[in-house]
């Protein structure tokens, strides 16, 4: 398409000249200075060249202008980069300091299940999400295989869960549930991920629940965002097992359906094949703007007869007098 | 008057951006900008009809969607190859917007 490129450049120059000459009269009618018209032309050409859709102009005056533009662009792009890196260094420095800072011990009530003391760190001020690393130390439990020494698991808990009485109590309830204690007996990495997920889900559902509660003017809404059926069912099932055995099968089936649906949602959404072109050059939407002579279809085979078109493919411009194409739907 | 179709091209968009900047600085009026665009439409249509002589063919892997509304065809194709005699270029997804080549474009009252 190199020959096409030269053609495109020439065509564009021709169009620019035509337009500028054509509107000169209109500009003068409005009483607008010729200088503005020239500025229009200059800016138009500059934008065209910086868009890289066509080859740059060989005019010496314009190339010197172009190189100056490039230098100023490079200077301005390095400046923001310099500003952002010091900020990042500052935020990373603050977080380890916060972790080492004073700790507020939180006591847990259940010695029977063997859950441990949690050590909370002060929240870093800069991050907006405000997760706090919480260390859970599990003391050695007799009778649990492979668990002879105390191990510490670090999970990230949103800061608001550690503050305030109700939220803090909530955290303890989450941590003392049977599923969690089962997880504590797993190896450290698995325990960390399981606990983290559990905490995230539980906190999200309660946050949503409390939010929906306040929106309803006193009437509690337990479904919709406040629904806790999916992940908390693991916990509730354990309770149900003790109470009614018959309902277990129903609950398991419903849970299986819920879990399948939860799995199917992500599975089905993977059926959508969306092409994400990571390369910056391909950021453009490849568009063809043209006129059609004839569009035909036979079963699912389409034939296109197009004319007078401009294409922008992968960032570059092409033109055609006629184009014929085939596609299958 | 001519199709405003070609305003969404590199040339058309850069022109519109430039005009918008000039309007912002108060150097031209919006009516004048509109006149420039109308002139651009006319010039573009004429140039494409007379100055461009090349033909090309293309083949698409798949036609994802087609739409025909107000006599305008819009196609979304994927995995397309454009061939101009000896040269080739490829696109992963291509959108084609095509106005009727035979109709008289609607006249605009400015």
From TrEMBL, chain B:
<comment type="similarity">
    <text>Belongs to the TFIIA subunit 2 family.</text>
</comment>
<dbReference type="Pfam" id="PF02268">
    <property type="entry name" value="TFIIA_gamma_N"/>
</dbReference>
<dbReference type="InterPro" id="IPR015872">
    <property type="entry name" value="TFIIA_gsu_N"/>
</dbReference>
<dbReference type="GO" id="GO:0051123">
    <property type="term" value="P:RNA polymerase II preinitiation complex assembly"/>
</dbReference>
<feature type="domain" description="Transcription initiation factor IIA gamma subunit N-terminal">
    <location>
        <begin position="3"/>
        <end position="48"/>
    </location>
</feature>
<keyword id="KW-0539">Nucleus</keyword>
<feature type="domain" description="Transcription initiation factor IIA gamma subunit C-terminal">
    <location>
        <begin position="61"/>
        <end position="101"/>
    </location>
</feature>
<dbReference type="InterPro" id="IPR009083">
    <property type="entry name" value="TFIIA_a-hlx"/>
</dbReference>
<protein>
    <recommendedName>
        <fullName>Transcription initiation factor IIA subunit 2</fullName>
    </recommendedName>
</protein>
<dbReference type="GO" id="GO:0016251">
    <property type="term" value="F:RNA polymerase II general transcription initiation factor activity"/>
</dbReference>
<dbReference type="GO" id="GO:0005672">
    <property type="term" value="C:transcription factor TFIIA complex"/>
</dbReference>
<dbReference type="InterPro" id="IPR003194">
    <property type="entry name" value="TFIIA_gsu"/>
</dbReference>
<keyword id="KW-0805">Transcription regulation</keyword>
<dbReference type="Pfam" id="PF02751">
    <property type="entry name" value="TFIIA_gamma_C"/>
</dbReference>
<keyword id="KW-0804">Transcription</keyword>
<dbReference type="InterPro" id="IPR015871">
    <property type="entry name" value="TFIIA_gsu_C"/>
</dbReference>
<dbReference type="GO" id="GO:0017025">
    <property type="term" value="F:TBP-class protein binding"/>
</dbReference>
<comment type="function">
    <text>TFIIA is a component of the transcription machinery of RNA polymerase II and plays an important role in transcriptional activation.</text>
</comment>
<dbReference type="InterPro" id="IPR009088">
    <property type="entry name" value="TFIIA_b-brl"/>
</dbReference>
């Amino acid at each position: 398409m190199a020959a096409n490129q030269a053609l495109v450049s020439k065509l564009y120059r021709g169009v620019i000249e035509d337009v500028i000459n054509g509107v000169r009269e209109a500009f003068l009618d409005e009483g607008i200075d010729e200088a503005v018209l020239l500025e229009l032309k200059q800016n138009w050409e500059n934008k065209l060249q910086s868009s890289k859709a066509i080859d740059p102009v060989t005019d010496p005056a314009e190339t010197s202008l172009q190189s100056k533009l490039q230098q100023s662009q490079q200077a301005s792009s390095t400046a923001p980069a310099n500003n952002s890196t010091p900020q990042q260094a500052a935020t990373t420095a603050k977080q380890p300091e916060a972790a080492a800072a004073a700790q507020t011990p939180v006591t847990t009530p259940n010695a029977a299940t063997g859950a441990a003391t949690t050590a909370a760190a002060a929240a870093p001020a800069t991050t907006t999400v405000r997760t706090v690393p919480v260390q859970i130390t599990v003391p050695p439990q007799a009778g649990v295989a492979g668990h002879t020494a105390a191990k510490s698991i670090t999970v990230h808990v949103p800061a608001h869960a550690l503050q305030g009485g109700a939220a803090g109590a909530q955290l303890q309830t989450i941590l003392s549930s049977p599923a969690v204690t089962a997880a504590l007996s797993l190896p450290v990495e698995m325990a960390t991920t399981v606990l983290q997920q559990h905490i995230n889900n539980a906190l999200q559902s309660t946050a949503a629940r409390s939010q929906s509660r306040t929106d309803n003017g006193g009437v509690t809404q337990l479904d919709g965002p406040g629904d806790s059926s999916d992940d908390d069912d693991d916990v509730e099932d354990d309770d149900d097992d003790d109470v009614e055995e018959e309902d277990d099968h129903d609950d398991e089936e419903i849970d299986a359906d819920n879990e399948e649906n939860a799995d199917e949602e992500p599975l089905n959404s993977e059926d959508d094949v969306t092409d994400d072109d990571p390369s910056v050059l391909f950021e453009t939407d490849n568009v063809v703007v043209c006129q059609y002579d004839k569009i035909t279809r036979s079963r699912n085979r389409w034939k296109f007869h197009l004319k007078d078109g401009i294409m922008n493919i992968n960032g570059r411009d092409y033109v055609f007098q006629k184009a014929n194409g085939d596609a299958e739907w | 008057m001519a199709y405003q179709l070609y305003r969404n091209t590199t040339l058309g968009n850069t022109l519109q951006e430039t005009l918008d900047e000039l309007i912002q600085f108060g150097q031209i009026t919006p009516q004048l900008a509109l006149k420039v665009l109308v002139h651009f439409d006319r010039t573009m249509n004429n140039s494409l009809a007379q100055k461009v002589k090349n033909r090309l063919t293309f083949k698409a892997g798949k036609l994802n969607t087609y739409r025909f509304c107000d006599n305008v065809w819009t196609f979304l194709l994927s995995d397309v190859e454009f061939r101009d005699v000896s040269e080739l270029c490829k696109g992963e997804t291509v959108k084609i917007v095509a106005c009727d080549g035979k109709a008289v474009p609607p006249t605009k009252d400015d």
